[in-house]
Design brief:
Helix content: 10-25%
Distance between the termini: 20 Å
Order of helices and strands: EEEEHEH
Largest sheet: 5 strands, mixed
Strand order of the largest sheet: 4-3-2-1-5
CATH architecture: 2-Layer Sandwich
Low-confidence stretches: none
Radius of gyration: 12 Å
Shape: globular
Mean pLDDT: 91
CATH superfamily: Ribosomal protein S16
Number of helices: 2
Strand content: 35-45%
CATH topology: S16 Ribosomal Protein, Chain: A
CATH class: Alpha Beta
């Protein structure tokens, strides 16, 4: 099963997350198939780069992680 979840890319004291598509059994850091967006928790900026791809993956039984689902609802992104 595929999941859309966050993968942390970081420098010390500077968190930044990529929104990635990955198999649910693999690590989000190394085993992702595609980068779909980003999230910066310091500035609270959340962006999905290609909504059409996200909609396509959702229609093919892909699930969101709970944090990504909350970010989508908080930012009023219509899927």
């Amino acid at each position: 099963m595929l999941k859309i979840r966050l993968s942390r890319t970081w420098k010390r004291n500077s968190p930044f997350f990529k929104v990635v598509l990955t198999e649910h059994t693999q690590s989000a850091k190394s085993g992702y198939k595609e980068i779909l967006g980003f999230y910066n928790p310091i500035t609270k900026e959340f962006k999905l780069t290609d909504l059409d791809k996200v909609k396509k993956y959702i229609s093919t039984w892909t699930q969101f992680s709970p944090k990504v689902e909350k970010l989508i609802k908080d930012n009023n992104i219509a899927l």
